[in-house]
Amino acid sequence: MKSIYRTTPESKETIEALWKLAKVILDTLDFKDVVTKIVESLLSELNYLKLGYRIIVLVLKDEDDNVLKRVSLSKTSEAEKLLEATTIPFPKMDVPLTALDNLIVKAFNDQKPYYTNNWPDILTPPFSKEESFSYQKLVEVKTSMVYPVIVKGRALGVLIFSLVKTIDDVSQEEKDLIGGFTDIVGLAVQNAQLYTALEDSSKKLENLNKKLRELDIQKDEFVSMAAHELRSPMTAIKGYLSMVLEGDMGDIPDKARGFLADANAINERLIRLVNNMLNVSRIEEGRLVYQLEKINLTRIARTVFDTFRAEADRKGLQISIEIPEKISDEIYVDPDKINEVIANLVSNAVKYTDHGFVKIILSNPLPDWVRVEVADSGPGISKEEQKRLFRKFYRIESTSGKTIGTGLGLYICKLLIEKFNGTIGLDSGDGTGSTFWFELPLARAKERLPESS
């Protein structure tokens, strides 16, 4: 007599069924959804309950513990009855890979299916043989089929199909479909694991970035606080040193005067550092107050030129300024801040150039723009260093191999020029000198904006 649970081979129907299962399982990348659909889809989509399939279990290898771990179970009345009876919770029904007699381990290692009508073959360990037989009798399972889940020649785990019919009643059509089904499962599990790993990495990276941002804020707060605390005593030191050097405290020996002058110069440098740190903090937080007005850039450039002429002469450098007679240079900026930018560029040029020249050049590259260039015949800057030069706290070595400055000057220049809607950059190379430049829109261009908007 033919079993009520038996099918007849229908290859076309098998292909269609597999296609249907693939669409259901591969529709999501969430690992929990995937493993749930794997054990449910065969029963719900193809109604294999009618063919005697009662319990489907997905087992995957746990790389950390070197065990095969049951991760999902079909939601049938038999499965619920089994879970109520077992003495070990489902997530902890692990099978050690050292249990070589267990068919789950055999199917995983040999990468081929195994069939059994005795549950101790798949439940021992973790359960005893007596317990395994009692659970099998409870749910009236006659046969269990264990199929490996394989991707690219590597076993990921196994699928266990427990049926209320004998293996003789399982048609070749069913075996073909289950074989194809496990291939789909392999792809789905691999994709979900990769996606989950990527999500986990993204979350970890996001958390790390959050911590870095918090640390950056804390660092900025500390720098700002430290700068405030340092400025008052250093200003007082500057005053006392000036009084001593100017003779307010009486005559001092020449040798002592030299030491005091050095101390005063160092203190001045520290004050500049503190002011730079405070400026950076204020600019980044939007707290810096700008006194915007129309100015002629030529006047600022000449003032800076006169300031550094004596220092350049002391180093034997030829310093010059080139301004076309009919240049358009009226801009709308904070004059003190633009003075600071040009002074910083000229100071660097004089500092890093041992011989040759320093030039300040003004021009109109476009009708509504003015350009300032500070060119020198110094050692030049490599392309690699140029990429990092305008970053906060980045410093380059001088020709003597020493690192000079605070690494804040050019960063502040960049922030200020961009605040005034300009651009800043440099042209340089090893041994070719450097030309730092910035361009700003003319005041007349800004005045035309409301008319064109």
TrEMBL record:
Alphabetized CDD domains for the sequence: HisKA
Histidine kinase domain ranges (all copies): 225-444
Primary enzyme class: transferase
Pfam families per record: HATPase_c (PF02518), HisKA (PF00512)
Presence of keyword Coiled coil: yes
Coiled coil: 191-225
Keywords, ordered alphabetically: Coiled coil, Kinase, Membrane, Phosphoprotein, Transferase, Two-component regulatory system
UniProt entry tagged with the keyword Chaperone: no
EC code: 2.7.13.3
InterPro entries associated with the record: GAF (IPR003018), GAF-like_dom_sf (IPR029016), HATPase_C_sf (IPR036890), HATPase_dom (IPR003594), His_kinase_dom (IPR005467), HisK_dim/P_dom (IPR003661), HisK_dim/P_sf (IPR036097), Sensor_HK_Regulatory (IPR050736)
Molecular-function GO term, any one: phosphorelay sensor kinase activity
SMART domains linked to this entry: GAF, HATPase_c, HisKA
Highest taxon of source: Bacteria
Catalysed reactions listed for this entry: ATP + protein L-histidine = ADP + protein N-phospho-L-histidine
PANTHER family: HISTIDINE KINASE, TWO-COMPONENT HISTIDINE KINASE
UniProt protein name: histidine kinase
Species whose genome carries this gene: Candidatus Woesebacteria bacterium GW2011_GWA1_45_8
